[in-house]
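All the exercises in this workshop are built on plain-text protein records. Instead of coordinates, the fold is spelled out as a row of discrete tokens. Once this layout is familiar, the rest of the handout is easier to follow. The record below serves as our worked example for the rest of this section.
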Amino acid sequence: QEEKIFAGKVLRLHVCTMEGAEWLEEVPEDTTVEKLKERCLKHCVPGSLEDPKTVTHHKLIHATSEKVLTDTKTVLEENIQDRDVLLLIKKRAPPPLPKMADVSAEEKRKQEQKAPDKDAILKATANLPSRNVDRTVAHHNMRDFQTELRKILVSLIEVAQKLLALNPDAVELFKKANAMLDEDEEDRVDEIALRQLTEMGFPESRAVKALRLNHMSVTQAMEWLIEHADDPTVDAPLPGQTPSEAAAEAGASSAEATAGPSSEASGEEAKDELTEIFKKIRRKREFRPDPRVFIALMEMGFDEKEVVDALRVNNNQQNAACEWLLGDRKPSPEDLDKGIDTNSPLFQAILENPVVQLGLTNPKTLLAFEDMLENPLNSTQWMNDPETGPVMLQISRIFQTLNRT
């Protein structure tokens, strides 16, 4: 009587096996999972409990939550409800340990496939005739893609300008492009950062210089301003941003804005106007040395023009520019403006590519070439652009293919 009164709630559970057997088990909710498992094994595998390992080799899984039930917990503790579905499965047997003979055979196979060490190579090649190979010459014979790419871009820009000059809408297209270039990323200053510095009492022009030198970091700019407070050259303009150049550029932009083409302009006038726009775009894309690197190299005692040339040749990389200044200074800055031989197999293969041909008629491609020519670090941006990316990919593939032959 007492057992019936105090017994837990009886749950009806639907149990199934991987072999397709199904049945109902009625168990009190205080029954352990291990006891439930024994009852299930008695039902589906008669006589299996004679082996004490049989219970541990099986497990019950809650079908809804896919949770493996713990043997020591009760049905209630595992939060099993009435009419829940449980799956009884046998655990996978662990893989047998390899025999000693198999281990020895595997080690022997690994030893046979192992690459020879330096001593073995020297011993095997001791009787071969020696040959002197000039590794320096062999290294320089491998053309550097970045160096060649610059030459390719110089020549492709000339081709693209000639093709786009034939487009009747080219002038308007490039006027819009030229207007977009007026707002250069390097010329922008974080207004909030600038206001924070000016509110501290620093002059605006000096604060702008400090922010540009420190990549718009207010903390670093403030430290720079305090450190150079007594420096007589603190207000000197940054290289590539002299007041006279800024005024000249502003004048060129205003002149362009006011001088619009006449609706009845001849084709020759439009061509001349397009040439002028090309020149203005090129001027806006002129190389600008990294101010921080420029100052660091100037402090080493190098001449200003030499430093600018070194940074231009080496894409604003300080270590490479320093090596260039201390070395034979090749390539020279003049070499950067030379294009590739237009009769070379490489250039002919590039021009014959349909993707490149189509891209050269797109004004955006020309702008990308101009930008990469003066800012090589921006090449990743143009490689990811849906319009210019395919063109750059084809140029790279053609170069790699011909370079291997």
User: Anything to note?
Assistant: DSSP finds 21 helices and five strands in the chain.
